[in-house]
Amino acid sequence: MKYSDINHVQNGFPDAFLWGGATAANQIEGAFDKGGKGLSTSDMAAYKDPYITGKVNNFTFNVTSKELEKYKTDPQNILFPKRWGIDFYNRYKEDIALFAEMGFNVFRLSVSWARIFPTGLENEPNEEGLAFYDKVFDECAKYGMEPLVTMSHYEMPITLTEKYNGWANRELVGLFEKYARVILNRYKHKVKYWITFNEMNMNLNSLYTGAGILADLVDNQLQAAYQASHHQFLASALAVKAAKEIIPNVKVGCMINHIESYAKTTKPVDQLQSLKSNQLNLFYPDVQARGEYPSYMTRYFADNNINLDIKEGDDKILQQGKVDFVSISYYMSHVTEAREDASKLAGSFDSPIKNEYLKLTQWDWPIDSIGLRIALIKLYDRYRLPLFVAENGLGAKDAISIDGKIHDDYRIDYLKQHILEMREAIKDGVDVMGYTTWGCIDLVSCGTSQISKRYGFIYVDLDDAGKGSFKRIPKDSFYWYKKVIASNGNNL
Ligand code: BGP
Hints:
Elements: H1 6-11, E1 18-22, H2 25-28, H3 50-53, H4 65-73, H5 88-102, E2 106-110, H6 113-116, H7 127-142, E3 146-152, H8 158-164, H9 171-186, E4 193-197, H10 207-211, H11 221-246, E5 251-263, H12 268-290, H13 296-303, H14 314-320, E6 325-336, H15 369-383, E7 387-391, H16 409-427, E8 432-438, E9 458-460, E10 472-474, H17 476-486
Parallel strand pairs: 1-2, 1-8, 2-3, 3-4, 4-5, 5-6, 6-7, 7-8
Antiparallel strand pairs: 9-10
Helix pairs in contact: 5-7, 9-11, 11-14, 15-16
Bound molecules: 6-O-phosphono-beta-D-galactopyranose (BGP).
6-O-phosphono-beta-D-galactopyranose binds at residues 24, 27, 49, 154, 198-199, 257, 329, 391, 395, 438, 445-448, 453.
């Protein structure tokens, strides 16, 4: 059945729609030094949300070699909340049972590269790491839940940063392909849906988070971000190719953090700037879905003195590794205006202007559900491929009420508005495969490294210092989402 059938115009969500939630290994697992796992880049960084520091710009999350040395020797794990996560490593059965109770038929999670290859350099994978994800996928299967697996979600073995400066070096392509082939082979009967890299466009926001690069070791950060992206494009394409060889009917997607960029005024120059900002974000799926570099980047690279090292045959690799679907995380829209240095901007991450029509979250992220509909329509027009909303949600400070419950009506309201707009997009003819809300269980935030920025349907009793009982408590939104899924998005 096609998503464009008249039924969907009337009802919205197709019968096979995938409903669930999303997580990442480094934000939930904990057990950073258990089961033979090596240290990863995410075990070594304490971030500051750019919206709090007021420094929203390119490369806000950079880490330098000096900082890394300090992080390595600092014995206080409190700097590194991702090291304790929410102890999913030991509590996955309980957590997956709760997801099943909500009716999830999909669960997005990532495999930690350093659990499979502790330094990234070994010839043989770490059996204990592989066995852990076997158990997790088996648990999902028990409830008929499809795993949607991200191969690389903001982490890699720290050895690869130390030895190669991460994705700056082309060596990483082969090392990643080796890792991808191992997990594809191992889980070929258990995992049908894969995403190669999480939010590849965030390389422009953080060299360290996205690409494992220490900023002080490169001359030109923009050049490094794009060179690293080129290497990840190749690695992603090779992983897609491998997936097709190994798993019949596999579906592999790419992913970006989609920030819809609006023009500040109807002035044509502002309109042009917003178009260009959007292009720079869509550069990533443009390459991964179409299998070639878009022509608009030639001028951008020239204007910014970026000379990419692209080898003969790379174009073939990109062509052979086109993705089956395009996934996005969607949290907000931005406003842009024409600037003199416009050719130097790197997409939507450049000093956004306040949108007076939108309310903000407690972390000052603009809330814009219609922006999701606009994004989905534009993406589908551009790629004609199924889309997946792999992240969306509201980070908020939750409190336990006197009745022992968490009344998160603000979260319900946020999600309801976004699901409504996604349904409208489907009625507009857009093929959306699924929706996984971010942080379906409270987890350690990527931007703040704190658990008090909560996204979950399930409260986790922990504070920012990692103190607490780890107890899981369903919030009001848990029962609401259960109802939404049971009605296939009709009872909102
Ligand atoms: C995305 C990441 C996630 C996640 C989310 C929310 O960019 O893929 O890992 O954390 O954003 O961001 P934050 O945790 O900063 O609120």
